[in-house]
Write a structure and sequence with these properties.
With 472 residues, the chain is α/β, with parallel strands linked by helices. It has 15 helices and eleven strands. It folds into three domains: 245 residues, Amidase signature (AS) domain (Amidase signature (AS) enzymes, Alpha-Beta Complex), CATH 3.90.1300.10; 135 residues, D-Maltodextrin-Binding Protein, domain 2 (3-Layer(aba) Sandwich), CATH 3.40.190; 66 residues, no CATH class. The chain has an eleven-stranded mixed beta sheet, with helices on both faces. Strand 10 and strand 11 form a beta hairpin.
């Protein structure tokens, strides 16, 4: 059942929030031993919130648009008193003293968090194999990855443990696992959703967004969490967009470009799915054209300098002194070194070292500065493209889900998984992935829609059309 329908039934008294939340925990108990989508569960807290919500409904109160809907929270979003580890040993057992803004908004909307979902450590990865607390598996085939870094959030929705979840997207970490798990995943415009309480990876790229089983539920969740937040200096000073009310307005007259650069390296079945999605949009009245944005080819290299550089700065705070893991040493330097050595995993160490090198004296202009210039070229190229089209269509990922362990020993091969999603983060634009059939291996395929800043309404309208025309 959809989140929207569940919330309506709970608000109308057709079902109790307690019953809905209990069902979610039963589903988790049945499948999560195999999938490992969750790191921690908030069983007692969630059931208590559900009971309180039922009382409020009995008293005739308005309980919000997500009344009683269970939701999974990626483990890099702060919840007061709940373990928030970023799937890292260095934060193992840390309990924040405050809620992230998105958590505050979810509570106000009546949603009930049931647990923290697994992820690549500090959101650095594309397969959720980099978690310090074990691998998450794809619900469609447990021998394959769910994508990353928000793999736990995607898997929890795909396995029907929860109807909704939140992830964060720095270089594709919502859209890529959404595609590999066969769910809807949305990366909003940078600044549309507050980052207050999101543990930072790369601050100029990070953005929180929704996972859902259908476009309507994803639109509803984004409406709830979006909007201005004075606690976030990068938050856009405008209200949340209206999305659900416009979902069925269609795409007639919309100019949509099929971007060949977002198909490079795509497998035959992924390329075929994109072509079929284009035909669905054209059949609904959209004006299709083929476009090329060769500057997007700079995205992967630019990202893997900019993101590690920002991570190097952001992760300097984990020093064994103020919070998190502490491994004693003979002096402060030894304690700091031992704490970080024991606390960070290999991929996090790799990116910290890469970022520190890129920012170091003598190399700043050659690496970080050059990457920022490439980022500017990508932004300019997108702006030129959006002068002739309203939205862009392409692949979300080059292939369907790959096997667990298949790419973990080859970082460069793993990084290629994000080649289609990274340019959007560099530009700060919105994009989403919509399930569209399966590959020859019977694993889900996602197609990606991209738009300029604050084009979420058009993106969701087009996504709805694709969803309705997708293969069964």
């Amino acid at each position: 059942m959809s989140a929207l329908r569940t919330a309506q039934d709970v608000a109308d008294g057709e079902r109790s929030a307690s019953e809905v939340v209990a069902e979610s925990f039963r589903a988790i108990d049945q499948r999560d031993a195999e999938i490992h989508a969750f790191l921690t569960l908030q069983r007692e807290q969630a059931l208590g919130e559900a009971e309180a919500l039922d009382v409020r409904i009995t008293n005739g109160e308005n309980v919000g648009p997500l009344a009683g809907v269970p939701i999974g929270i990626k483990d890099n979003m702060c919840q007061i008193g709940e373990v928030t580890s970023c799937a890292s040993r260095i934060l193992e057992g840390w309990r924040p003293p405050y809620d992230a803004t998105v958590i505050t908004k979810l509570k106000a909307a009546g949603a009930i968090a049931v647990g923290k979902t697994n992820m690549d450590e500090f959101a650095m990865g594309s397969s959720t194999e980099n978690s310090a607390f074990g691998v998450t598996r794809n619900p469609h085939d447990p021998e394959k990855v769910p994508g990353g870094s928000s793999g736990g959030s995607a898997a929890a929705v795909a396995a029907s443990m929860v109807p909704l979840s939140l992830g964060s997207d720095t270089g594709g970490s919502i859209r890529q696992p959404a595609a590999l798990c066969g769910v809807v995943g949305v990366k909003p415009t940078y600044g549309l959703v507050s980052r207050y309480g999101l543990v930072a990876f790369a601050s100029s790229l990070d953005q929180i967004g929704p996972f859902a089983n259908n476009v309507e539920d994803a639109a509803l969740l984004l409406e709830v969490i979006a909007g201005h937040d004075p606690k976030d200096s990068t938050s856009l000073n405008q209200p949340a967009p209206s999305l659900v009310a416009h979902l069925d307005h269609g795409v007639r007259g919309l100019r949509i470009g099929i971007c060949s650069d977002l198909l490079q390296g795509a497998s035959d079945d992924v390329a075929t799915a994109v072509a079929q999605a284009a035909a669905v949009l054209q059949g609904a009245g959209a004006e299709l054209s083929e476009i090329s944005i060769p500057e997007l080819g700079l995205g992967l290299s630019a990202y893997y300098l900019i993101a590690p550089a920002e991570a190097s700065s952001n992760l300097a705070r984990y020093d064994g002194v103020r919070y998190g893991l502490r491994v004693d040493g003979d002096d402060v330097t030894a304690m700091n070194t031992r704490s970080r050595t024991a606390g960070f995993g290999d991929e996090v160490k790799r990116r910290i070292m890469l970022g520190t090198y890129a920012l170091s004296a003598g190399y700043y202009d050659a690496y970080y500065g050059q990457a920022q210039r490439a980022r500017t070229l990508i932004i300019q190229a997108f702006a030129k493209a959006y002068g002739s089209v309203d939205l862009i269509l392409g692949a979300t990922t080059p292939t369907t889900a790959f096997g667990i362990g298949e790419k973990s020993g080859d970082p460069l091969a793993m990084y290629q998984s994000d080649i289609c999603t990274i340019p959007t983060n560099l530009a700060g634009h919105p994009a989403l992935s919509v399930p569209f059939g399966k590959g020859v291996d019977q694993m889900p395929i996602g197609v990606q829609l991209l738009g300029p800043t604050l084009s979420e309404q058009r993106l969701f309208q087009a996504a709805r059309v694709i969803e309705q025309g997708a293969p069964a």
